[in-house]
UniProtKB/TrEMBL annotation:
This is Protein-tyrosine-phosphatase. InterPro entries: Dual-sp_phosphatase_cat-dom (IPR000340), Prot-tyrosine_phosphatase-like (IPR029021), Tyr_Pase_AS (IPR016130), Tyr_Pase_dom (IPR000387), TYR_PHOSPHATASE_DUAL_dom (IPR020422). Residues 104-251 form the Tyrosine-protein phosphatase domain. The keyword Hydrolase applies. Residues 170-229 form the Tyrosine specific protein phosphatases domain. Keywords: Hydrolase, Membrane, Protein phosphatase, Transmembrane, Transmembrane helix. One of its GO terms (molecular function) is phosphoprotein phosphatase activity. The chain crosses the membrane at residues 71-97.
Amino acid sequence: MQRLHPEQQHSSLGISKALNEEVRLLQEGERTGTGQVRKSLTDNNFKRVPTKEANIFTWTRFMISLYYNKVYFIKVFIIIIFYFVMNLYIICIIYLVGCQYVWFFNRVDQYIILGALPTPSQIKRLHKEEKVDVVINMCSEFPGYEKLYKELNITQIRLETPDFCIPSLDSIESGINQIVALKQQLPKSSIYLHCKAGRGRSAAIAICYLLRTYQMDLSQSQQMLLKKRHQVDKDLCQTDEVRLFYKNTLSDIEIGRYTREPCNE
């Protein structure tokens, strides 16, 4: 039988060898007078990456040292991430509070304001600060604040249109005719035109209002509306209802039913 080398007679895990190493470190610590035996857990021997042939005890020792060396940096990293997230949250809150009204509505011209479905507090603000005395509600799913409108002496006009649909040609012509009449009756007031988000149904009425009021074509009216409120549907000018309204508008101008004014934008 082959005789094993004395070093090979130790445990296959290399535990005896590792313990001998610890004894040596202890003796060295006693000779130097430091006595810091525990420091061996974080010395260079523990920080050295073990080879593939290393035993389980060596790998365990290395992982422990890795934990001790990196736990501080993990804590610092978590703190940095926490403060970053909190600051980002605060910035977003400040931005939303400061810009909610910019998203909420946009003035198209001195008469028309295009926006989303308002809250009662926003209605009061519009009435007080923007002189809104007329609300055109395009929502078939929302009846409006009838009691509040009555208290504020605001007139509501309902042109009920299902969500995600373009108003019919009859609804568009009815809405534009009422806007033209109200501009003459209430020259110092504003009209608030809304659907749910202020980008589809109400925007279709707004683009037709621009076509009826100003000397511009379909593309120009679309660009002007996007400039005023960037949320609006970018293809409104290509819908059949808007194109047909524009065609009828040009026919009415040719026979002298009304004229349009230059656009100063």
